[in-house]
Amino acid sequence: MKAVVLVGGEGTRLRPVTLTTPKPLLPIANQAFLERQLRWLARHGVDEVVLSLGYRADAFEKHFPDGRFDDVRLHYKVEDEPLGTAGAIKFAADGIDERFVVWNGDVLTALDLTAMVAFHDARRAEATISLYEVEDPSAFGVVPTRDDGRVIAFVEKPPADRAPTKWINAGTYILEPGFLDRIPARLNVSVERETFPRMLESDGALFGYKSDTYWLDIGTPQKYLDAQADVLAGHVGLPPTAEAKEHAPGVWVQGHPVFDGAAVEGPALLGDGSVLAPGSIVAQSVIGPAVHVGRDCRIERSVLLADARLGDGVVVTDAVVGPSASVGAGAVLSDLTLIGADAHVAAGARLSGARVASNPMGESTSSGGI
Ligand code: GDD
Ligand code: MG
Predict the structure, then answer these.
(1) Could you confirm whether domain 235-367 is CATH 2.160.10.10?
(2) Where are any strands of DSSP class E within 326-363?
(3) Does the reported pTM lie above 0.85?
């Protein structure tokens, strides 16, 4: 089976971390998010994937240099300008002449795709949308259905009090090739705002497949952190990361981290070659490979990406420290502070909800700190 994966977005809400690593390649529990989801697609019989790219297409080609991941063959379709979700599907699916899968590339899910395909085939649907129930549907496409699954309406991001149901578009579609004829060949067409609603006007066979399997859109700093915690807790399958071993209940290690004299409270993951100096406390956090944490630091509900360096006495809570970034002694980072790759935080700084990027001169610029 073939799949089109939409990964052209800029990941603006996760800047500055996404300035260097596009969102789909950001690690979740020390493994690139996209690799996790390619494994998921492969488990359900997908062996060929077209990556629909725009922003930082180069980073994807570099990440998968031989055009494959495990047994999945990868093709790249790069847009000069964003084509919108439908435009991107049409462009990327050019030449596909059998039923195929589309997946929004920022959704962490363990959806039973095999069962969804069977549902689609049994109803002779032209398109089937995966649905997931959420408390507040206002940030999503809202999709009421009849008892047999037929979609009644598709309302993208309605005001909270106007949503007809809590079942939302969970961002995986099964499409027949004929669906592509519904997408006009022009720039920027939205599948959510144009193609699906128009398909309903013409009585097209559009179905919704409800599932309560784990689902999360990782697009905001809080959700990015939640995703790590959920993966570590085993909500998306165990072990959390292929090579990880459980050192103590809920404490996972990869390769050979050094943490004598440090306290680690699960769920947590320590990457290969990471060092936690004595007196440090790590709780509900992910420590990337080759990260160095100084003495008496406290890391809680946070992610330190590869090669990050923390001086002594640093406190990090609910924050992300980017790859190769450095944090001076005694600094306190909290409340969804995001530190970009290679950025430097001065000793003693107090940053709450801040975004710190490294500028081309190698200095750091920060915004939103206190
Ligand atoms: N190639 C390409 N070109 N990809 C795009 C483009 C484009 O022009 N625009 C968006 N994408 C990709 C994004 O990278 C992302 O993986 C996916 O399409 C969805 O775009 P988002 O920008 O993340 O949309 P959203 O999260 O606000 O809403 C969508 O996802 C929700 C579920 O998470 C919609 O499909 C909603 O209906 C849905 O509920
Ligand atoms: Mg999204």
Answers:
(1) yes
(2) 326-327, 332-334, 338-339, 344-345, 350-352, 355-358
(3) yes
